[in-house]
Write a structure and sequence with these properties.
Three copies of one chain form a homotrimer. Chain A is an all-alpha fold and 205 residues long. The first copy, chain A, is 75% helix and 0% strand. Chain A contains nine helices and no strands.
């Protein structure tokens, strides 16, 4: 009896995409972007990481192009942002939580997809991290901000750590669902602890 | 008797590429770029949108790689810019018109190519817009400017609107050439009216 | 008896990748990047150019994904940077030399790979230059700096010139190894002379 069934996973992917689109659209609220700019930014945030992963792997069609459900999940996220903006904007802290859940979940999904396509674990670790964070990196690059990756808090490194732990446990034969849950919880914990205690990695000096 | 025959369309694509290269090279004239930088920028502007569309769709070879004519159209545009710079630079307003014609034309060509490859209309609408505007977005990102997309005037949203209208009319069985012309004219009109009356979409607030 | 045997070439590619990772990680030392940010930047610099070339050509799998040795060469470069940072940082001038050797070498390898895949020489010239310089361009774009391409000194144009010379000599039937060495030396010379005498191309005016 799987803890995470296929249908639950699929539903979670759509929900994660929905929240990624919202947090992407919200990310630019302080700038002078119009509705279209906010929608475009939300769209890029939601599809960027997975698209880059699949382009690097040559895994066509891209998820959101082959399965229109993801496009509708993004549209739903953007419309939610536009219609309920005053409410949504107040939920910033809640969205920080959703973003953390999202990057943890998409990291491990990215690792699993890469392994399933027959690539090596070293590649899977990188692709897991890319799936989770590159949407935000592309968004920040387009809007001329310093990408999240290069800001102080531990963010992408938490994803990479979780991916590596998943791969080691997978190599040791840990049952998939336990491994999935453990790695996701690990990423979330690292991220929350880092933000709570303002931890950061040392700089080159 | 088609209004737009295949050969005319092909000629228009080459001419559009030629003008895109010129407007891309001109886009950086106020900065301290050397000739090579201007040429590189013109090149990226001309190939960026179509290349991104085809990479996302996995449609290989990319147009300019499979058909060398496009590369020569770009070279011709760059040489025109370098040799006739004093003349070309004074024609800025004319190039605004060419750019507007260009984005309208490439939007609908991008929509048609995506449909012809068997993808869904929702994907085609996004790919049409990407074909037209992402060359400029990549150029602006590389040169550290705020991408055209995020500046005030209606630009990419005009392309998206034209793409959606084309797809609806196509769905309703409108004859292709009429549809093509109507959608292109619509994009041009939206853009010209927006610029003339300084219209912009509302911002998130 | 080939001057450059296959095994030597492979070893040189790995060594070049190793040095590209180091120079990429060093490129951000003045900014507040943490270790992860520096590692990420080194990684992107090392894989960016070749990855973009192969994605544009549709040549899958990407080199570093299909052959894990390249990933380990990058890891080795990053660990070298982190562990021996005080030493490595003092060798800046040495790394300028390695970077120059690297772009010259990767330009011609990129040209040869593109030709070997059956693409036209015009495409190969562009892909050679992209292989060499786009890793740095992507790195600079992500870190919000003006890309190397657009700074004053002759850089990418030296690569393009060397690529064109290689292609002309190749067309004229020059033996491969002589051609390889001559073109690489040419790129290095152009670059060194340009830096030494602060030469730059004219700007558009």
């Amino acid at each position: 009896m799987p803890v995470i069934s296929f249908d639950l996973q699929y539903a979670l992917e759509l929900v994660g995409t929905y929240f990624f689109a919202i947090s992407g659209a919200l990310a630019v609220q302080n700038r002078e972007h119009d509705l279209f700019g906010a929608g475009f930014t939300g769209f890029i945030t939601a599809i960027g990481g997975g698209s880059l992963r699949d382009i690097l792997l040559g895994a066509y069609p891209l998820v959101w192009i082959g399965n229109i459900d993801f496009l509708y999940a993004i549209f739903a996220g953007l419309i939610t942002t536009f219609v309920f903006f005053p409410v949504v904007a107040k939920l910033r802290k809640t969205f920080f939580l959703f973003d953390t859940l999202g990057i943890a979940f998409f990291t491990i999904l990215g690792v699993e997809k890469t392994l399933a396509l027959g690539f090596r674990p070293e590649v899977a670790a990188i692709m897991g991290m890319f799936s989770a964070v590159m949407g935000g990196v592309i968004r920040d690059t387009l809007t001329n901000e310093i990408p999240i990756l290069f800001r102080k808090e531990i963010y992408a490194s938490a994803c990479l750590a979780g991916a590596v732990v998943y791969l080691i446990m997978n190599h040791c034969g840990t049952e998939r669902n336990s491994n999935l849950l453990l790695s996701i919880v690990l990423i979330i914990l690292i991220r929350l602890v880092a933000v709570r205690f303002k931890l950061s990695l040392p700089t080159l000096k």
